[in-house]
Design goal:
Organism: Pantoea anthophila
Strand order of the largest sheet: 3-4-5-6-7-8-9-10
Pfam families: Aldo_ket_red (PF00248)
Helix content: 25-40%
Family: Belongs to the shaker potassium channel beta subunit family.
Bound molecules: NADP nicotinamide-adenine-dinucleotide phosphate
GO molecular function, one term: oxidoreductase activity
Protein name: L-glyceraldehyde 3-phosphate reductase
Structural class: alpha/beta
Number of strands: 10
Strand content: 5-15%
Radius of gyration: 19 Å
Largest sheet: 8 strands, parallel, barrel
Shape: globular
Length: about 325
């Protein structure tokens, strides 16, 4: 059996600075939203984590509610960390989040100080960690004062339970306000995590610019639109795909004729570039240097290999970018 971790792992990956912080993230990060809950085989989850780390992927992204059931991804990850990564904690950036429903009653959701502080304590217990590297507020809360939520992030950083504070799903305007509050508190926002892909370009309408100006990093989640921006669904719905699973977040109805026509056009462009559509989709998100990392999911180690191989074919000509825009119409 080959030794773990791979001695050349840091030569395989590119590391990009998160905004104006001291932290560099791998250009490709791995999210544990799917394929790490209790309904998946732990040996596959283990294989995915080891494979990713072997290829220089040093950042694993979680949230309190990842599973199913909620919390189980953190528990399973904690077990794998203890068993396989004990000697490597300081080589890893581990993030978690709170902001969506986690437990019953008024204190298990949204953005109060009560919820955030209690949720992070639960996450640390589940993962068996003393601290996470990044703690996110998972979504903006329209009813809690932004100051309260940002003070809670500042508080957990000062407690040493998180090294950095971060935001996810905040639209540009609220993100700018939150970033300013955190800066004034002395706990600068490390990174923002928006959904960003060829199919979801809202961050181009101000958010990425805001982050760039504020010196805050940007990590794009679902850069493959959950697998739609790949060759996965070109010949129907494979039995082992996310659409065929009972995912609440991606079902057959979302694979409309119109969307699949766009996928086919993009697939042709990727073939002309000599790469897979998944690779072109990831390179496209990384074309903007203000994007620190693409946050992918994977059900198979070969998908991680595809992503890493993308790094060798990253550049786009103006004509290629225009052709992609046209294919997306
Ligand atoms: N902050 C938030 O609100 C939020 C929300 C969603 C996600 N996230 C984060 O973002 C992470 C990634 O989200 P995501 O899983 O939706 O990302 P994604 O990268 O858009 O989709 C991943 C899925 O695409 C398929 N895939 C990946 N590589 C492939 C390849 N080379 N060829 C063919 N298919 C491929 C796999 O699906 P199959 O299962 O079909 O193989 C894989 O599970 C999550 O784990 C989480 O950490 C954050």
């Amino acid at each position: 059996m080959s030794s773990f971790p791979h001695p050349d792992r840091y030569q395989q990956m590119e590391y990009r600075r998160s905004g104006r912080s001291g932290i560099k993230l791998p250009a490709i990060s791995l999210g544990l939203w799917h394929n790490f809950g209790d309904s998946t085989r732990v040996d596959n989850s283990r294989e995915l984590l080891r494979h990713a780390f072997d290829r220089g992927i040093t950042h694993f992204d979680l949230a309190n509610n990842y599973g199913p059931p909620p919390g189980s991804a953190e528990e399973n990850f904690g077990r794998l960390l203890r068993e396989d990564f004990r000697a490597h904690r300081d080589e890893l950036i581990i993030s978690t989040k709170a902001g969506y429903t986690m437990w019953q009653g008024p204190y298990g959701d949204w953005g109060s100080r009560k919820y955030l502080v209690a949720s992070l304590d639960q996450s640390l217990k589940r993962m068996g960690l003393e601290y996470v590297d990044i703690f996110y507020h998972h979504r903006p809360d329209p009813d809690t004062p932004l100051e309260e939520t940002m003070r809670a992030l500042d508080h957990v950083v000062r407690q040493g339970k998180a090294l950095y504070a971060a935001l996810s799903n905040y639209p540009a305007g609220i993100a700018a306000d939150a970033i300013a509050i955190l800066r004034d508190l002395g706990t600068p926002c490390l990174i923002h995590q928006p959904r960003y892909s060829m199919f979801e370009r809202t961050p181009e309408q101000g958010l990425i610019q805001t982050l760039g100006e504020a010196g805050v990093g940007c990590i794009a989640f679902s850069p493959l639109a959950g697998g739609v921006l790949t060759d996965r669904y070109l010949q129907g719905i494979p039995a082992d795909s996310r659409v065929a699973s009972d995912s609440r977040f991606l079902d057959e109805n979302q694979l409309t004729e119109e969307k699949m026509a766009r996928v086919r056009r993009l697939n042709t462009l990727a073939q002309q570039r000599g790469q897979k559509l998944a690779q072109m989709a990831l390179a496209w998100v990384l074309r903007d240097e203000r994007v620190t990392s693409v946050l992918i999911g994977a059900s198979k180690t070969a998908q991680i290999d595809d992503a890493v191989a993308m790094l060798a074919r990253r550049e786009f000509s103006d004509d290629e970018l225009a052709a992609i825009d046209a294919a997306l119409m």
